[in-house]
Amino acid sequence: MLGVFVSLWIIFIASAPNTFLSPQIYSAFMSSIPFFAIMAIPLTIVVVAKEMDLSFPSIMAMGMVAFSFTYDGTAFIGNTTIRVFLAIIAALLAGSIIGWINGIIIVKFGIPSLVVTIGTQFFWRGAVLVLTSGTNFPIEYIKDTIFYPILVGKIGGYFPMQMVWLVVITIIGWVMLNRHRFGAHIYLIGDNINSAELMGVNTGRTRIQAFMLVGLISAFAGVLYSFYVAYFWPSLGSGYLLNTLASVFLGGTSVFGGIGTILGTFLGAFIIGAIEAATVAIGLTGFWTQLIYGFIIVLSVIMHTYLRKRGE
Questions:
Q1: In a designed cystine with 265, which of 44, 101, 159, 250 is the match (CB 3.0 to 4.6 A)?
Q2: Are 55 and 117 in contact (CB under 8 A)?
Q3: Which CATH number belongs to the domain containing residue 119 in this structure?
């Protein structure tokens, strides 16, 4: 994957040297890519387990609804920093609970995760619209707390903190998938769930935990993005579905489960971000990016299908 990454980057530089040889573009990458790349990390774990979660965009928004309600409901405290801290905890808790609900429905009722999470994606988006009456609102008050520089500030005035959080979550995800029993169980489940059960793996609990991770990190991504723009709108996250999925599949994760790496997804996210920049730099409209993302996802599925049949 690293070789592919380097090769593609050389192509990007050759196709748009004024863009990809400029330091500003890399600063922009580090500011914008983490918002969807962060969600691609736990999503990789879910896909390796031969499952799918399409509800993460709505979880981003629902987490911020929990944030807003908690902040407004703790006005009696008076201290803005404490209120924001409690609101962040509420957002993360809401995301985890939604992930747990997804996992419970999938595991206990035996319904395909693709179907369940399409349904919950619409359900939670609807809940966001109902609870907020479809209105946008600023959250400028977060700039007066210590959490603003910790989450989306800049180190030395250049290096964005959201990039630091992406690196931290990537490292944690890599350790979980490659150096922890949880990761070993995920690979076993993705390869053959029946064999995993015969080996004593609690496949239900492990899959539920994987969906909870997606919920937790998606809510965190929602907090990060909302802090970055100091604003909330009910459509938060809706534009991140395709590029998050494309990052996972471009990174080498198989839709058939059992195959995938965190590092591959990390690099895939930056390739996806670069594709968008390159598309605009060579004179095409931004509408082309969705076509390209869709092509990447379809091509990835075709390639993994071919390799799977060849291996058989």
A1: 44
A2: yes
A3: 1.10.3470
